[in-house]
Amino acid sequence: MSKIKLGILGGGEDSLIGILHRVAANMFDQYEIVGGVFDVKHEKSLKFGEKLQLDQSRIYKDLDDLIQNEARLPDTEKMQVVSVLTPNFLHFPMAKKLLENGYNVICEKPLTTTYDEAKVLDELQKKNNSIFAVTYTYTGYPMVRQMKTMIQNGEIGQVQKVDVQYYQGWINPLIHDKEKRAATWRLDPDISGISCCIGDIGTHAFNMAEYVTGMQISEILADLNYLYEDNPMDIDGTVLLRFSDKIKGVLRASQIATGEENNFTVKVYGDKGGLKWEQENPNYLYFLKEDQALQVLKPGHAYNSDFSLEGTKLPPGHPEGIFDSMGNIYFGIANAIKNEIKFDGAYPQLKDGLKGMSFIEKTVASHKQGNVWVKMQD
């Protein structure tokens, strides 16, 4: 079968995530990157496309140019899916135009800058029946999928406590300098939306809490930290989670956790046991049970679920990381395009991005209303 033709918007020479998506797309031999718009400056985009050894005629000036010229190609050559790797404020207009022109879409998170924009995309996706993925990357890790399966199978019993933490420290050197914080696009609402920390990494934690437990968060109470009065964006926050009257949790996110790199930790406790996973040590899933020794589960072994093993590409003992996690998501998207999906949760969908946008807005609302409980449902 011929490879899926993939186009990319953004992700050029200066992008932090571009290489992650390109490696992921090539991992299972499912995609062929055929072109795109890698930079707002066409000359830089052309130069980068040359570096990737792409046909220069398919390095377009902008999205309109891409859509117009791709439409002239034979169906067997046209882009079938386009990845949107641009800053947040461009996600909505680009994804909307792609959906309107019949493309499948892979979009970085947060999905948009507002919940209303996300609802527009949701309606378009349903109308066109397009495949639309939002890259909550960490759901692709084999041991996260193992965690999800074990909870679903009741191996820890009834869930009673969820604790998700995502700590980084990268904003700390910038936030205390007025000029630097004013020049950081992540702290510019016109580019990022209404939230920095919760919008950037808090949504990962929110998505993970629901993904691994299979439960939905019904209410939240948030306390955010902006640190300086002239800083319009949160850079730290704690959110209490209520799945039900008897099942509760906490979400902690920070970008001023000095010295932290990418400390994303997920802990779920049931009445029979607990599970713990750490992104910086992603090949270990800790299984805790009362009156028993701690068990450490690792990828690639036969004791893992089929869902976990599908995303394991190397024998046990060979570390797999974030490239593999994103590769598993791209593999799930490829299977969806080919109508060959085998596992629930194989890739994060538009509905997950929609819920993420709702979470961002409800979190900010909870904080600004005086740290009150806010219902997640519309």
UniProtKB/TrEMBL annotation:
Please provide, alphabetically and separated by semicolons, the GO molecular function terms listed in this UniProt record.
Answer: nucleotide binding
Q: Where is the GFO/IDH/MocA-like oxidoreductase domain?
A: 144-275
- Write down the species: Christiangramia crocea
Q: Which InterPro entries would you find in this protein's record?
A: Gfo/Idh/MocA-like_OxRdtase_N (IPR000683), Gfo/Idh/MocA_oxidoreduct (IPR051317), GFO_IDH_MocA-like_dom (IPR055170), NAD(P)-bd_dom_sf (IPR036291)
* Domain (Gfo/Idh/MocA-like oxidoreductase N-terminal) ranges: 18-136
- Superkingdom is Bacteria
Spell out where the chain crosses the membrane.
none
Read off the Gene3D superfamilies from this record. Dihydrodipicolinate Reductase, domain 2, NAD(P)-binding Rossmann-like Domain
- Its name, as the record gives it, is Gfo/Idh/MocA family oxidoreductase
